[in-house]
Target: Response regulator transcription factor
Amino acid sequence: MTQASATPSSTIRVVLAEDQAMVRGALSALLGLEDDIEVVAAVAEGEAAWRALQRHAPDILVTDIEMPGLTGLELAQRVQRHELKTRVVIVTTFARAGYLRRALDAGVTGYLLKDAPAEQLAEALRKVHAGGRAIDPELALEAWGEADPLNDRERQVLRLAGEGLSAGDIARKLNLKQGTVRNYLSEAIGKLGVGNRIEAFRLARQKGWL
Model:
C-alpha cells in the first residue's frame, strides 16, 4: 500500500474531520501507513475542522457529512466561498444521490462510501491531489436525477425543526423573526408535498437534501 518512492516534497497534507472517534482513529491510522500522505489534524466537529483548515492550509480535507457544528457539505461550501486551495473529499455512510449532487455543487472533488475497500481512500486522495475526481461510480449515475427543491435557508430551518427545535428556538438560533421561520417551513412543506414539518424533514433526509 505504501509508496517507497514518495519524497517529502510530494507529501499530501490532510485534515480529517469525523465525529465518531473510532472511525476517525481508523482513518487516521490507515492514511498514516502511506509514505506520501500526512494527517496534519484530526478533529471531531465542523468548526474545529474550519479552524484546522485556516491553521494548516492542507492539500485535502477529508470529511464526513453529518457532524456537530458545520456539516461536511457546509464546510465544502465555505471552502468554495472563501476560494481556498484545499480540495474536499467526503467519506460517508450516506449513499444518497441528493447528497452527492449538493457536494458536487459545492466543489467537492471526492465522494466515497465508508464501506468501500480501504485501499481506495489513499488512491482517491492521490487522484484528487493530482487534479482529478474520485466519485463513487454508482452514485455518480444517480446524482443528476431528481432535483433538490429546497434552498439553503429552507434546508437549514427544516434541519433544525427535525431536531426538535420550535419556531421560536430556530428564530433565536438563526437570528430571524418567528414569522420568517414559519414561512420557510411552510415553503419547504409545500415544495415537498407533505403535511407537516416532521414529514418534510423525513422525506428531505431520505432524499439526501438535508
Remarks:
- The radius of gyration is 18 Å.
- The chain has two domains: 8-142, 152-207.
- The CA atoms of residues 77 and 105 lie 9 Å apart.
